[in-house]
Write a structure and sequence with these properties.
- The structure is a single chain.
- By secondary structure, the protein is mainly alpha-helical.
- It is 71% helix and 0% strand.
Amino acid sequence: MNIFRFVGDMTHLISIVVLLLKIYATKSCSGISLKTQELYALVFLARYLDLFTDFISVYNTVMKLVFIGSSLAIVWCMRFHQVVRRSYDNQLDTFRHYLLVGASFLLALLIHEKFTFQEIFWAFSIYLEAVAILPQLVLLQSSGNVDNLTGQYVFFLGAYRAFYILNWIYRYFTEQHFSRWISCFSGLVQTALYADFFYYYFISWKTNAKLQLPA
């Protein structure tokens, strides 16, 4: 644990709180990609298979449960909540997310740290998380206008991974045997995908205007 990882975790937590606030306060999931949320649920379920076998710390266990529970709750709301599901627009959420799942799993079989069941699914979760935001970004570009809470959600989600890059840099210089190169590479790819969004988010903040993405 270091300050960069802690801030990254808190930023990730804030992004989830913002999304839950949007859904429960407005009873709407307009502008949110169900496919991205399903991918994140799959990411956490695959990554935390060690939840009941390996104990690291109370903090670690609580965060795992929070990420799994919140992601499943969001998917449930968008699919089954009588009011929230009516605001979901499947005409805009058209990205073929199953292709990302298949490509990530194939890559995990080819590139991994150890050929074990748990490590394969860990690598799979890392690769899938790197591209899980794509359906959300495509949806926002298709709709053009981005409401305030949705914009903040995506911003904090991108910022979380940026802090994790700083965490990996810190660990590289402070640990003798740093080996999480899969995480580093995937994190760079993931953060790069947010570059366009960050640019327009900054312009919107600077000019105090509504966030709009080019179609």
